[in-house]
Design goal:
Oligomer: single chain
Radius of gyration: 33 Å
Number of strands: 7
Region (Disordered): 13-42, 238-258
Structural class: alpha+beta
Largest sheet: 3 strands, antiparallel
Shape: flat
Strand content: 5-15%
Number of helices: 8
Number of domains: 1
Helix content: 25-40%
């Protein structure tokens, strides 16, 4: 007879391994805080164009431009692209903020060469938007995207492209339509040099410490405007940086005028600087100018006179 003995039966009860206690029971909770076991139900939001990153939305807007001729006569690639630009101006850019930024990027870059070609000498031009925020085109936050610009000449460029895109489409539709030169006369005889002069006063005034510009986020350092060619458009005049501002010494002035309260009265023979305060406008600086005088020269003289006016007003 064979007897099989188990080693566990031979061990005393105290030497057996101790088991862990059972887990505590789940506490009773309300139905609102009760979490269902996995897989967890996901809440998926509806995809919208406004939720896309800016560079993807800009690519989509670019893809709306035709790249080939149409089926019918008179529907060349250039004519079809002008109609798309006309549609962007009247409809697409008014959808929301994101579409406005993308459409204005396309429209401004398209009509900038035509705008620069109509600048009258000896005037200069720089309609590139001046931004005081560190906005990145790859950012998904649309609230930081700049729409309104401190650059006054940008508004003139926007008015020009609104008129130009309409005139081009109407000229393509019928040969009887003649482009009206008076549509652009006021823009380049009065509004363009006046707004450009205001931008120069802002740039020189900030350097001289007599004009202040509202900044949000990073500081903005503006280089000296280029005066090499009157009709040459200069880019990169303002560099957004947080460290360059401390490297450039600035004159210490306790009194500055905000740029948004300043405007210019412009004529071929004289220039005036107007200050607006509490709904009251008055000319604080008036200088004479030659008819063929560059805007940079007039701006420097106004800034110099403005510095003297501030010293007398607060002495």
């Amino acid at each position: 007879m064979v007897v099989i003995l188990s080693e566990k039966d031979m061990l005393p009860p105290d030497s057996l391994p101790q088991l862990l206690p059972p887990p505590p029971p789940y506490p009773a909770s309300s139905s609102s805080s009760l979490v269902s076991p996995p897989p967890f139900p996901g809440r998926r939001t509806h995809a919208r164009f406004s939720s896309l990153p800016s560079h993807i939305l800009l690519y989509i807007v670019h893809q709306t431009m035709p790249q080939s001729d149409g089926v019918y006569d008179g529907e060349g690639k250039v004519e079809l692209q002008r109609k798309v630009l006309y549609w962007m101006t009247l409809s697409l850019r008014l959808v929301n903020r994101s579409f406005y930024i993308a459409c204005m990027h396309v429209l401004r870059s398209t009509y900038l060469p035509a705008y620069s070609s109509m600048i009258k000498p000896p005037y200069s031009s720089d309609p590139f938007p001046f931004s005081t925020s560190g906005y990145s085109p790859y950012s998904s936050n649309k609230l930081t995207a700049p729409i309104n610009s401190e650059q006054r000449e940008t508004q003139v460029l926007d008015l020009f492209l609104s008129v130009k895109v309409r005139e081009d489409v109407w000229a393509d539709d019928t040969e009887l339509h003649l482009e009206r030169e008076e549509s652009f006369k006021d823009l380049f005889d009065m509004m363009q040099p006046r707004s450009r002069l205001e931008d120069l006063i802002r740039s020189y005034g900030v350097q001289a410490g007599v004009v202040s510009v509202s900044t949000r986020g990073n500081s903005v350092v503006c280089s000296s405007p280029s005066s090499a060619s009157p009709s040459r458009t200069t880019f990169g005049a303002c560099i957004t940086s947080s460290s360059s501002a401390s490297q450039q010494p600035k004159p210490k002035r306790s009194h500055k005028l905000p740029f948004n309260s300043l405007s210019v009265t412009f004529s071929p023979r004289s220039v005036g600087l107007v200050h607006s305060s509490k709904g009251v406008k008055r000319t604080i600086v008036q200088v004479n100018r030659e008819r063929d005088e560059k805007l940079e020269v007039s701006a420097k003289r106004i800034v110099k006179e403005l510095g003297q006016w501030l010293e007398e007003a607060h002495s």
